[in-house]
Amino acid sequence: ACALAGVDLRANTGAEAWELADGRAVALRLTNGARAEAGRFLVAAGAWSAGLLAPLGCAPRVFPVRGQIAA
Q1: Is residue 68 scored above 70 in pLDDT?
Q2: pLDDT in tens, 32-50
Q3: Which has the closest alpha carbon to 13: 30, 36, 37, 33?
Q4: Cα diameter, the chain
Q5: Phi, psi at residue 44, to the nearest 5°?
Q6: How is residue 71 annotated by DSSP?
């Protein structure tokens, strides 16, 4: 379903740094040297989400707890 919607999933790939233009995230540099460009990004990094979003001035209001699962 994601592929049909044009979503590009990058599993097991680390994020290195955001690229900004006019105050918006336009790309994400990845640890494998690739660059992911998009008009929108979905961050699903679990406990690492806060650190990934901090450079954008975002603070997720979710506080993961060890052993927490989604139902």
Answers
A1: no
A2: 999 999 999 988 887 788 8
A3: 30
A4: 39
A5: -130, 60
A6: -
Contact 51, 41 (CB under 8 A): no
Q: Which of 31, 27, 26 lies closest to 16, judged by CA? A: 31
Gyration radius from the chain CA atoms = 13
CA distance 15 to 45: 10
DSSP assignments along 1-70, one per residue: -TTTTT----TT--EEEEEEETTEEEEEEETTS-EEE-SS-----GGGHHHHHGGGT---S----TT---
Distance CA 69, CA 2 (A): 22
pTM for this structure?
A: 0.71
